[in-house]
Task: inverse folding
């Protein structure tokens, strides 16, 4: 006998997309019809299960006076009710589709509203939800109007007949888990709530229903063709183009085309009998031709990012200003494309992409990644019962977003395996909109898609694909290639993106890629700074894998973004300095160089001595020119460079005049050799050795001071607090060096003292540096000499035993007591750089503080090294390197950095720890992708390097 028969919440576990909602239609930002935002403070009650409460709260007159309040849009778990959960691909509930747990946090939301006094008296009205996670049931004035799933998709309900002038009661019951959750297994926080706008729209008689703006561009004639199909007949006017045609009629006129680089939009109006809707029309044509994605006749190169919606306090409830900030930051960092991973964004984001110019891959709200754990058994995308839900999702995306010129590719979803449901979606989309391409990375043979797409493929494989030697189905071999995800920006990194870009620019078939991902999803936390997975006591979680963006959670650019900006510059500036000229290549796909001004400057030892403007011809996209530089200034001594910069010539929509877009730097005369510093003999007295400005402990040979600057703990150092990319993802099959280094004990090296030898011209300290338990070691000799004023340390390192792993770093470290600020150096800057993340590091004179040298990765790890440093001054000490070195300084030890889980675990001590590194191992992208390329390995090999110490005068 069973007691659980029909339940009033059966819809929660129903595979259908819902009931009661209107068919999907085009979204438009405004019209002359009235609308009423229902955003704001709502009454809120949380229940532990879906059916804990009946629907009495939906009845007019219900007293919710003792309920809590939440902000709509918002997620209740970020407003003090329950907690967020972070999993990458594991479902945080038993997998038994479409069933969900009995524990199903359910938020009843209540809002009472009056119609404005000027609300039209005719009865048409629609209630629109732009996003609710994951399933909602809606009542207006006590009438059940339907329920829906599809969290990041719009749902509209006809409600005119239910409205009253005052005291309307809108009740929304939101369930955290539903059958829809099986389709929304994206790698992100699970955040229930009404997280996008709720709006009441007046629908006048004869008002606009659905419409489709077809605006193509013929690059051979320079003409655009406009046709607006509309469910309700009307007229379309575009004053700037003298267009005034009926809907359904096409018209061809000369136009400026829309591209991401030149986002020309024409204002128009769609007027039906009852409504006027403003249009922003961009003319452009997307085709697959010659195996390439072409827009307006030309292949495009995507320099993209994957963007999740994120705000450290509001989660996925983004306001317009945050969306605009994202777009401006992208434009200012030379990014030209966004994949809306992994769901359609707030619609206003696409308006901004149209306006500022970004290519968009609009991705459907679909991921079933957790089924991989059961060999994709029961995957909803291969089960016909779910196909209506999949088609509903595809339609809600396409219909909503089809009038955006920025959207050039539709993506079926992410990591959902393969199946008939996906094929059905692709067929439907192709049938509905033949003017765009279809993408889905999981379709490895491109059965249903128009572009071959992969994620995290290594450089060698990408090159094979570029050379069309990758094999695959015949269809796939004819298609262009993109990396829908690469360059995993978790923690320090991603490394190796310049090497990818070189491939993209070498092979036509490679049409670029999208860095994973735009922003760290850290949640602002009172004790932890930014919280990540596990910080809310989740029973399953994936730690800081959720913090893998080019922006920190507060939208400060990370060094990865600065690197990416340099790597994808739309102007290439190259020169050899000597030749007296510079080669400028316009690497845009469409725009000429008229928006840019060029400047040269000349540096001596990193300081600019002269500068001026450089006249560069207005090169068309793809063209290059050799441009003469002025006569270099007369310089008698020092290392000299040219720096040439391309900046915005005047204010644009996204950047101010003078904003730097691209730069190039090239040497003229090389570095002046570092003096040998010899001639003074070491002197032993009172248990101390003195050698020029150096003082040493006679027993250990340890340096204790340089002049008046105390020095502690100077010794060889090979350890770095492993980065997320060093540690690698657990599923990686290649060697994960972070793990191997720790196993080998590189974080617990012992330093055996073998000899302290006083010679005529030097103090020599012989040591062997090795980890307990293993035979491998580094025979390390410190040889000190001096010319009386300066102290020279030559370090020689000889590996012993069978070293099968590279070293994390190789150099020396030491402590300085007290405040060490300011820090100045001549070398790479202003930001951090590692062997495979050094494109943006520019030679110059830089000044900073120890605190400002730190890069605030959400999970602390190795960071902040400055590359190619010739000399640095810190805490009264000057160090010159021979050869150049990586320079790092911090107010905690590497061991403390390594142990910290959050930034708030790091407390500054009295000592500033300085690392001077002869080498660093590359960074790579192994937290999800490939490790560093072999050329960026720091192999355990014999090495010699030296430093010259002196007191700052
Ligand atoms: C991909 C996935 C993304 C994200 C990324 C790793 O496999 O599509 O959503 O999980 O890996 O951060």
Result:
């Amino acid at each position: 006998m069973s007691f659980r028969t029909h339940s009033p919440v059966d819809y929660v576990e129903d595979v259908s997309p819902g009931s009661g909602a209107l068919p999907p239609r085009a979204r438009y930002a405004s019209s002359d019809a009235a609308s009423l935002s229902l955003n704001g403070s709502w009454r809120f009650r949380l229940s532990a299960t879906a059916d804990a409460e009946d629907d009495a709260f939906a009845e007019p007159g219900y007293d919710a006076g003792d309920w809590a309040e939440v902000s709509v849009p918002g997620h209740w778990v970020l407003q003090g009710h329950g907690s967020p959960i972070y999993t990458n691909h594991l479902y945080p509930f038993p997998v038994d589709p479409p069933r969900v747990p009995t524990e199903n946090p359910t938020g009843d939301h209540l809002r009472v509203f009056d119609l404005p006094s000027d609300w039209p008296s005719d009865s048409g009205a629609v209630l629109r939800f732009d996003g609710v996670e994951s399933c909602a049931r809606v009542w207006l004035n006590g009438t059940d109007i339907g329920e829906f799933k599809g969290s990041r998709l719009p749902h509209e309900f006809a409600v005119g007949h239910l409205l009253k002038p005052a005291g309307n009661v809108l009740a929304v019951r939101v369930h955290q888990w539903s059958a829809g959750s099986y389709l929304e297994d994206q790698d992100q926080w699970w955040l229930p709530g009404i997280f996008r706008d709720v709006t009441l729209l007046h629908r006048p008689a004869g008002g606009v229903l659905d419409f489709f703006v077809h605006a193509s561009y013929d690059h051979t004639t320079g003409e655009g063709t406009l046709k607006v199909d509309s469910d309700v007949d009307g007229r379309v006017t575009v004053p700037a183009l003298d267009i005034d045609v009926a809907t359904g009629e096409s018209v061809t006129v000369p136009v400026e085309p829309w591209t991401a680089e030149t986002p020309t939009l024409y204002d128009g109006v769609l007027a039906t009998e009852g409504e006027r809707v403003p249009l922003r029309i961009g003319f452009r044509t997307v085709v697959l031709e010659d195996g390439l994605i072409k827009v307006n006749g030309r292949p495009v190169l995507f320099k993209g990012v994957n963007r999740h919606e994120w705000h450290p306090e509001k989660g996925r409830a983004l306001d317009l200003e945050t969306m605009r900030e994202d777009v401006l930051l992208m434009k200012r960092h030379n990014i030209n494309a966004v994949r809306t991973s992994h769901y359609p964004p707030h619609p206003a984001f696409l308006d901004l992409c149209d306006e500022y110019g970004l290519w968009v891959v609009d991705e459907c709200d679909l991921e079933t990644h957790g089924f991989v754990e059961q060999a994709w058994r029961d995957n909803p995308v291969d089960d016909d019962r779910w196909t209506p839900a999949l088609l509903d999702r595809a339609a809600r995306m396409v219909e909503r977003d089809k009038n955006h010129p920025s959207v050039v590719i539709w993506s079926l979803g992410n990591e959902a395996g393969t199946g008939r449901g996906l094929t059905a979606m692709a067929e439907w989309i192709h049938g509905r909109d033949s003017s765009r391409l279809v993408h889905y990375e999981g379709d490895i043979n491109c059965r249903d898609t128009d572009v071959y797409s992969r994620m995290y493929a290594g450089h060698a494989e990408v090159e094979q694909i570029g050379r069309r030697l990758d094999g695959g189905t015949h269809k796939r071999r004819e298609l262009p290639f993109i990396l829908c995800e690469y360059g995993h920006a978790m923690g320090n990194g991603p490394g190796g993106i310049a090497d990818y870009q070189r491939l993209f620019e070498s092979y036509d078939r490679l049409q670029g890629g999208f860095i994973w991902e735009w922003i760290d999803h850290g949640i602002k936390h009172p004790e932890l700074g930014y919280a990540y997975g596990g910080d809310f006591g989740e029973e399953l979680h994936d730690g800081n894998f959720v913090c893998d963006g080019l922006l920190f959670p507060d939208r400060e650019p990370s060094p990865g973004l600065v690197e990416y900006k340099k790597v994808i510059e739309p102007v290439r500036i190259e020169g050899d300095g000597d030749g007296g000229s510079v080669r400028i290549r316009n690497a845009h796909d469409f725009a000429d160089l008229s928006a840019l001004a060029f400047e040269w400057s000349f540096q001596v030892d990193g300081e600019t001595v002269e500068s001026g403007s450089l006249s560069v011809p207005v090169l068309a996209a793809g063209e290059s020119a050799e441009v003469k530089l002025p006569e270099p200034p007369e310089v008698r001594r020092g290392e000299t460079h040219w720096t040439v910069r391309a900046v915005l010539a005047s204010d644009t929509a996204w950047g101010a005049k003078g904003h730097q877009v691209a730069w190039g730097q090239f040497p003229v005369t090389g570095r002046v050799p570092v003096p040998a510093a010899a001639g003074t003999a070491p002197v032993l007295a009172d248990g101390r050795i003195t050698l020029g400005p150096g003082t040493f402990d006679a027993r250990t040979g340890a340096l204790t001071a340089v002049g008046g600057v105390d020095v502690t703990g100077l010794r060889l150092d090979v350890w770095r607090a492993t980065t997320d990319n060093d540690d690698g993802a657990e599923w990686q099959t290649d060697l994960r060096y972070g793990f191997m280094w720790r196993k080998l004990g590189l974080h617990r090296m012992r330093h055996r003292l073998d000899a302290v030898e006083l010679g005529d011209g030097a103090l020599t300290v012989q040591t062997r540096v090795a980890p307990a338990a293993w035979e491998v070691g580094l025979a390390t000799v410190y040889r000190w000499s001096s010319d009386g004023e300066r102290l020279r340390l030559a370090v020689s390192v000889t590996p012993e035993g069978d070293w099968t792993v590279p070293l994390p770093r190789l150099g020396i470290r030491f402590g300085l007591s007290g405040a060490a600020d300011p820090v100045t150096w001549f070398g790479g800057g202003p930001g951090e750089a590692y062997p495979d993340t050094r494109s943006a590091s520019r030679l110059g004179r830089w000044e900073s503080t120890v605190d400002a040298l730190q890069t605030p990765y959400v999970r602390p790890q190795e960071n902040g090294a400055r590359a190619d440093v010739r000399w640095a001054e810190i805490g009264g000490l000057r160090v010159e390197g021979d050869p150049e070195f990586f320079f790092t300084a911090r107010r905690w030890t590497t061991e403390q950095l390594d142990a910290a889980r959050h930034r708030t675990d790091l407390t500054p001590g009295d000592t500033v720890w300085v690392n001077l590194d002869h080498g660093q191992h590359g960074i790579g992208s192994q937290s999800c992708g490939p490790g560093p390329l072999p050329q960026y390995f720091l192999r355990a090999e014999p090495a010699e390097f030296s430093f010259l110490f002196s007191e700052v005068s």
